[in-house]
Structures are given as C-alpha cells and as structure tokens.
Amino acid sequence: MDLLRFITAGSVDDGKSTLIGRLLYDSKSILADQLEAIERASKSRDDGEIDLALLTDGLRSEREQGITIDVAYRYFQTPARKFIIVDAPGHTQYTRNMVTGASNCQLAIVLVDARHGVAEQTRRHSLIASLLGIPHIVVAVNKMDLVGYSQDVFSDICIHYAELAQKLNVKHVTYIPMSALNGDNVVDRSESMPWYDGQTLLEHLETVEIDDDANLEQGRFPVQYVIRPQTPELHDYRGYAGKITSGQFRKGDSITVFPSGETSTIDAIEIAETHLDEAFTPMSVVLHLATDVDISRGDLIVRSDNQPLSSQTVKAMLCWMDSKEFKVGNKYVLQVGTFRTRCSVREIAYQLNVNTYEQIEGVEQLRLNDLAKVVLRTAQPISFDPYTTNRASGGAILIDETSNVTVGALMLVGEA
Ligand SMILES: Nc1nc2c(ncn2[C@@H]2O[C@H](COP(=O)(O)OP(=O)(O)OP(=O)(O)O)[C@@H](O)[C@H]2O)c(=O)[nH]1
C-alpha cells in the first residue's frame, strides 16, 4: 500500500486542529481509548459536541514533552492508503517548522478561513510549499458554515488564490470548500453545499496521483558506510551501504563516484544477504562494484548516464533557522546527502518578501525565518542536482560548527 505524506498549514485559529481531528474521527482512525478521553474532556462543553481539536492538542503536549521538536506527526490509514500528517504550528515565526516538516511531503493542505480569504499566512505557507517543491496543494476553504455555505465566497477565494499560485511554481492546486467543525466535505460529502461536485478531502487524499512525483531518472546513492569485513576468506568483499535517494540501479550499470570521478560497474546489489538484479528509491541496499575504487562515507555513487553537478560555488534558496544572524563571510558546515564540507557565505543575492514575493536586494544579513537566495563557497566540491529536478539530491543543510545545530535549510539551484 502506498504512503502519502502531507503537511497542514494555516494561521492560528483557521481550524487546523479541528480538521485533523475530523479527518481521524470520521475516517475511524481514532483508537477507542483516545476517543473516550476526548469525550470525557469535551463533557464540560455546553453544546455536548466532541471537541475534535483536543485530539491534536494531545499531540501538541507530546511535542512539548520533547518527543518531537516543533513538528508533530500523526499516522492513519484507510483501505486505500497510508498517511502521515505533519502538523506544523501556525504562528508567523514558525516558517522554520514548516520547512523542517515539509521537505519530503508530497502534498500541503493550506487552510483558509472562508471569512478572511487569502491571508498573509496563506501567502507565506504557499511560498514555502513552492520553494520546497511540494507537488500538490489543497486549498481547504474552511468555516464555510460561517459564510452561509456561499458558493460566491468560495469562488472568490479560488480566483484570488489562483493569481497567487501563478506567481509561484505550484503544479497542482485543488480547492475544497469545507466545514471541519460540522464535517462538511472532510470525509463525508456536504449536504449544505450541493453546488460543489468535486471530491471530499479524504477522497482527494486517497486518490491523488503521487507515483509520477518519484524521480526515477537520476540514480543517486549517497554512501553511508563502507563494509570491509576483516575475515581473510572475505578479503575481496567490499560493500557500500546506503539508501537510493532517487532513481534506480541495475546489476551491470556503469557508475561514477563523486567527488573523485572514478568509474566502475555494479557487480551485485544486496539487501539482507539477498541478491537483486535491480533496486530503486527509497530502498536501502549494499552495492558491490566490479573494480576496486577508493570510496568513503559521504561519497555519491551515480549512474554514469546521468550525472549531477559538481562545484565549489553554489547558488541556493535558503531558509534561515537560527536566532544568530546570517552574514556574508560567516562560516558553516554544509551537508548534502551524507557529504559534509565547510563553506563560507559569499553573497546574499536577494531576500524574498514572503507576502509580496518581491526580491529585496542589498540585504546585509538574514534573521530567523528569512528566505533568501545566497551564494556559498565550499572547501571541497559538492555534487548535487538542482532542487527543482531532484528534491533528494538538491536539498542541503547548514550546520553551526560549534554547536552542531542545523541553522539553515538549502534548496540548491546551481553553480554560481
Ligand atoms: N464555525 C466553525 N468553526 C470552526 C471550524 N473549524 C474550526 N473552527 C473553530 O475555530 C477555532 C480554532 O480551531 P482550531 O482547530 O483550534 O484551530 P487551529 O488552526 O488548529 O489553531 P491552533 O491549534 O491554535 O494553531 C475553534 O474554536 C474551532 O472550533 C469550522 O469549520 N466552522
């Protein structure tokens, strides 16, 4: 069964917690004991209704206990698919959380309060979703009950959002009018909006095409471990363990190793002592090569017929995630795949205004949650693909050398 990983984004009070609760409740994904607990907690309410937001708020207290920092994950499944919901808090200052949670999501639900329409946070979240290359966006127009389930209100919001989506590089946008509180068009079809003949949210989540999004062209294998048994009778054995982050590899394929540029062919592909003729993303395997090549952890094995860029000066979109400022001349460790090297900041080409999408030039420093295009100079060449063609090998992070904390998320653009 396939897996859809999606993020929910919206301003505080747009109804994110209620929506997640509704999705789990109506799709019968809530465990009996959880249900009992929220029923008990909801008893104090005057209307006797179950407060679905309590479910997600339960998750948030887990988060506060430090089980997951900043972002909470919730799993559920229907007969059609498995789902992971990434729940990022909605406050303005949490761009960082959305970036952390969303980098490998296939879909983002952007909540819009029907009464307020497209808001500042809608623009911010949509910009981040587009920078992160999330291929599917659902604009969930919530609280339709508070605007009399009006088709006109819904249409206006769709038109407004479509203008914004045009400025961004968002591939697929789906609009759904709903009331998370009353359960309209979340799992069950709304009787109050007969004018809407599209899918409910769950139907969409269950059927949205995600296979096409997998990059099968670019065989990329960042080496995590070199396996060299010490036993004499296995002296010829040398395997490279890691995860295929994109594409596929077959026995007999010509490969190139980066950064050295050495070449060889694949002699065997192994998973738990079973030999395979081919393997593809996201499998974790051990590769064996026909010849003795000098490979260490952090190297990138690629199929020779499709090679990545390799450079010491790179352009990238940066989401700055630290309270210390980012400035030209600062030094960090850059990690792409399993490869790490030191780097310094050459230039801040421009900062992006997250509301108007304007490029602000002449910026000297970045603060927490700022988004910018930057140029970095690395100590050793890095091998990568533009993020827009390959999210796995085009994403990188900046690490503070002294604290070892991740301070920036990078979407690599190309050579500078
Ligand atoms: N009328 C109406 N109220 C809703 C709907 N969805 C959510 N609400 C209410 O809006 C308020 C905020 O909902 P939450 O689900 O807590 O909002 P949130 O976006 O998760 O907010 P945070 O958890 O603080 O980020 C609550 O009082 C909900 O009951 C809806 O479809 N219609």
Describe the structure.
With 416 residues, the chain is of the alpha+beta class. It folds into 3 domains: 3-212, P-loop containing nucleotide triphosphate hydrolases (Rossmann fold), CATH 3.40.50; 220-303, Translation factors (Elongation Factor Tu (Ef-tu), domain 3, Beta Barrel); 309-415, Elongation Factor Tu (Ef-tu), domain 3. Helices cover 20% and strands 37% of the residues. It has 8 helices and 24 strands. It has helices at residues 16-26, 32-42, 53-64, 95-102, 120-131, 151-167, 201-207, 391-394, and strands at residues 3-9, 72-77, 82-87, 107-113, 136-142, 172-177, 220-227, 239-243, 248-250, 254-258, 263-271, 274-276, 278-280, 284-289, 300-303, 309-320, 326-327, 331-336, 339-352, 359-360, 365-366, 371-384, 395-399, 406-415. A 6-stranded mixed β-sheet has the order 2-3-1-4-5-6, sandwiched between helices. A 6-stranded antiparallel beta barrel has the order 7-8-14-11-10-15. The two termini are 42 Å apart. Bound molecules: guanosine-5'-triphosphate (GTP). The site of guanosine-5'-triphosphate (GTP) has 17 residues, from α1. Residues 10, 12-18, 53, 90, 142-143, 145-146, 179-181 line the site of guanosine-5'-triphosphate (GTP).
